[in-house]
């Protein structure tokens, strides 16, 4: 039987870490992948962010608000990837 944590670690850092990884994936896709293949690779990047969010939140070992933390990680990743992909799409139209 384990004792409860007196001062549990904050979980916001894990959520933001997944968002940062989504930004890095979005930039890498925009820079290194040819334009016709970018949507497919962005979808794969989002899938990777989903898996990463589960890994990070399971590593915390806390059951309270688990679904909300996964949802915040995934929704933030989707928004970050969407904004970065949209930026690269507009840049390719103007170029």
Structural account:
The chain crosses the membrane at residues 12-33, 39-60, 72-94. Keywords: Membrane, Transmembrane, Transmembrane helix. The protein is mostly helical and 95 residues long. The chain has one domain. It is built from three helices and no strands. Helix 1 (12-32) packs antiparallel against helix 2 (38-60) and helix 2 runs antiparallel to helix 3 (66-94). The chain is elongated and about 60 Å long. The mean pLDDT is 91.
Helix percent band = over 70%
How many strands appear in the DSSP assignment?
0
Mean pLDDT score, rounded?
91
Span of the ends, CA to CA: 62 Å
Class from helix and strand fractions:
mainly alpha
Q: Radius of gyration, Cα only, in angstroms?
A: 16 Å
Shape by Cα distribution:
elongated
Tell me the domain tally: 1
Tell me the major beta sheet. none
User: Helix count, per DSSP?
Assistant: 3
How is the secondary structure organized here?
Blueprint: H1 12-32, H2 38-60, H3 66-94
Provide tags for this entry:
transmembrane helix; 0% strand; mainly alpha; 95 residues; transmembrane; 3 helices; membrane
